[in-house]
Amino acid sequence: MSKKVGLYFGTFNPIHVGHLIIANHMVENSDLDEIWMVVTPHNPFKKKKSLLDNHHRLEMVYSATEGYDKIIPSNIEFNLPQPNYTVLTLANLSEKHPNHNFSLIMGEDNLKSFHKWKNYETILEHYNIYVYPRISEGIVETQFDNHPKIKMVKAPIIEISSTMIRKGISEGKNIRPLLSDGVWKYIDDMNFYKK
Fold this sequence. Notes:
Distance between the termini: 49 Å
CATH topology: Rossmann fold
Number of helices: 7
Largest sheet: 6 strands, parallel
CATH architecture: 3-Layer(aba) Sandwich
């Protein structure tokens, strides 16, 4: 019996309770067996200067997911050529884990720009996509309406962002409720995002 694994990609800079709420909701309210939190080293669409080193972000994901048996940290992309594309990661994982059935997890905002992704047709041909709601501008391309590979999952709409957390920390605000205890302690101990 193959294991159904949802891949939740992110820079997780830092991982916050919103990420955990979505990941946990997806694994508890869909046919997925596990969610892998894939820490992306460098998103081709993002500037790199505000990004903490890969190992720090991975460490925080490990800390945040402690005690969640079905949510697994993954550093698969650390060893792939950069900048990396999702289609290559999926191919790499499918080759390494032939007994796993991988799917993508993305917010509705990402689905709106999915047609711009490298080889998005290949992704849709071979993998399911689980989409959670997000409040965002723009519309989803009609080619993705009622697509057999795209599953819309009713999940809580989370309006917390890592950007907001980094900004709050740099302004000396208490953002502690937005982070799990281990992540908060790690950021505080390391003096991250202060300026």
